[in-house]
Amino acid sequence: MAKTKLKINGMSCQHCVKTVTDALTELPGVQRAKVNLRKGEAVVHFDESCVSTANLTEVITAAGFETS
Question: Apex CA 43: angle with CA 42 and CA 44, to 5°?
């Protein structure tokens, strides 16, 4: 199981947090995602054989947010 921290730009409320959390946890291989509005980041635990960090950033972008 791998763990990564992604910076997320554009979140302004708890609805944004839920949107990002839902997008990440719907990916096969993502065990859990903890999104922090104040820090503007997500900590994601995932199975590297199923999903990559590129996949994680793609779904965040598709949800309407930017990663850095």
Answer: 110
pLDDT at position 55, please?
Answer: 97
List Cα–Cα distances, 1 to 4, 24, 32, 42, 47, in angstroms.
10, 15, 11, 16, 5
Domain hosting 17: range is 2-67
Tokens standing for 15? 């609805």
Q: State CA 12 to chain mean position distance.
A: 15
Q: What is the CATH number of the domain that holds 59?
A: 3.30.70.100
pLDDT value of position 12: 97
Q: What is the pLDDT of residues 24-55, one digit of tens each?
A: 999 999 999 999 999 999 999 999 999 999 99
Domain count, the chain: 1
For tokens 């839902």, name the residue.
Answer: 22
